[in-house]
Amino acid sequence: MDLNILNPKIQEFINSNIGFSVSNLALQKNPFSGLDWIQILNQIEAKTKAKTKLPTWFATKNIIYPSKISVEQTSSEKTALYKSSIITGESLIDLTGGFGIDDYYFAQNLKSVVHCEINPALSAIVQHNYVQLNSINIDCQTGDSIEIITRLNKKWDWIYIDPSRRNDSKGKVFMLKDCLPNVPENLNIYFNYSNSILLKTAPLLDISAGLTELSHVKAIHIVALENEVKELLWELHKDYSGTISMKTVNILKTKTEQFEFVLGENEGVTNYTVPQEFLYEPNSAIMKSGGFEEVGLFYDLNKLHKHSHLYTNSSLVSFPGRIFEIEKSISYNKTDMKAFLEGKKINITTRNFPDSVENIRKKWKIKEGGNQYCFFTTDVNDNKIVLICKKI
After folding, report:
1. In this protein, which residues make up the domain named PG-1098 ferredoxin-like (predicted)?
2. Residue pLDDT, tens place only, 10-38
C-alpha cells in the first residue's frame, strides 16, 4: 500500500477524473513523478465504480481502493446493510474479509468483528480505510482463516463466509466444494467455534444443489437489488434439523419487497384461469426461490399456466413485483399482430413462450420503449397469447 496516493494533489486529480474513460487517460503522460501511473488510474476506475455501489466510501476522504475487480465483487452497501439485520449477539468473525463492506455494517450492530484476509496488501488497505471511516471495533487479521480461527480459539456468536470460486472451476457446474474456502469440507471445524454461520453465495448457485452440500440450514435469504438477484445467504445453525425458511428480498429505491415461505410445506391448490383485469409478475428474488405456488396462494391469485409464472385476478392487490392492468388479450397470430402491434413502440417480456424478445421485435418491427407493455406467454389452454398492458 503506497500512502503517496493520499497526496492532496493526487487525490484532487483522482476526484476530478471520476467517470472519465481510463483507457483515454492511460494515453496521457503521468503528471506525478514517483508514483506508478497504473496505480493512479486504478484508483480512478475503482472509485468511479464505488460512486453508486459504495457511497459511504466514495464520500469519505483518504479512502484507498483495491483493484476494480475487488470493488466489483464486493457487496454493495445496501445488501451489506440487509445482512447486518440478520446477525444478533456481540461478536462475529469474517473468514473471507475482502474489501470489508459487510464487516463495516456488521460492526454497527456488534461489539466486536474480526476481518480475516489472506492478501496482506488488501488487508492493509481495509485496515487503513476503517480508520478513515471511524470504525474502531473491527480487528483486521492477515493470513489463512482456518489458522486464524484456530489461533484465536474462542467462541463467536457468528461466523461469516463469502467463498470464491477457484480459478480451475471455470466452466463447471457451480458447487460449493469448488470454492475457497471449501465450506462443506470445513463445516465441522467452523461449528467448533460458533453455533451460527452466515454463508454468502453467488445467485448462480442452484438452491437444491446447495442443500445437497450443506447441513443444518435454517433459512435461505435471496437478496435482489433493483430486481436483480445479487446474493444468496444461507443461515446454518449447529445441530438444526427443522424446516427451512425461504426469505425473498428485493431492495428498491423507495421500498423493500419481502416474501417468505417454508420450503416444501405448500399444501394448497393453485387455480388456473384465462387473463382477468390485472396481471402480476413476481420479482426476481421470488423467481429464484421457486415459490411459484406459494406466492399465488398467499396473495389469492390465479396462474395463467403451470410454467408461465404469471398471475391474474379481477381486483387489485399489493404484490412483491410488477403489476399491470390488462388492456387487451390477443392471440399470437399474423392477423392480430399486424392489427395491434406491428411497427409500434412497446416494452416486451416473454414468459413460457417459444420465441425470444429479439426475434419478436425483428419479425414484427417492434421498437423498444414507450408506455405500453406486452407479455408474450402461454395460457391455461396452451394457446400462445399476447397481453397488452399498462403498468400500475
Report:
1. 278-320
2. 999 999 999 999 999 999 999 998 889 99
Cβ neighbours, 10 Å, residue 327: 12
Sign of CA dihedral 4, 5, 8, 10: positive
For 254-297, give the DSSP string: S-EEEEEEETT-------B-S--SEEEEE-HHHHHHT-HHHHHH
* 207 vs 205: CA distance, rounded Å: 6
* pLDDT above 80 for 173: no
H-only helix segments in the chain: 8-16, 22-25, 37-53, 55-59, 68-73, 77-86, 101-109, 120-132, 145-152, 183-190, 207-213, 284-289, 292-298, 334-340, 357-364
Q: Is 188 exposed, middle or buried (0-12, 13-18, 19+ CB in 10 A)?
A: exposed
16 alpha-carbon distance from chain centroid: 30
Grid coordinates belonging to 177: 466444494
Q: Which residues on neighbouring strands pair with residue 235, listed in sequence order?
A: 198, 219
**Nearest 10 degrees: CA dihedral of 95, 101, 103, 106?**
-140
Q: Given a cut of 80, is residue 92 above it in pLDDT?
A: yes
Amino acid identity at 41: L
Tell me the helices (H) and strands (E) count for the chain, helix number first.
15, 18
- CA 198: distance to chain centroid? 15
How far separated are the first and last CA of the chain, in Å rounded? 51
Inter-residue contact 104 to 94 (CB < 8 Å): no
Residue 367 contacts residue 361 (beta carbons within 8 Å): yes
Q: Which of 169, 266, 176 is nearest to 217 (CA)?
A: 176
- Which residues make beta-bridge pairs with 221? 233, 247
32-69 per-position pLDDT tens digit: 988 899 999 999 999 999 999 999 999 999 999 998 88
* Bond into 181 cis (ω within 30): yes
Alpha carbons 21 and 30: distance in angstroms, whole number: 15
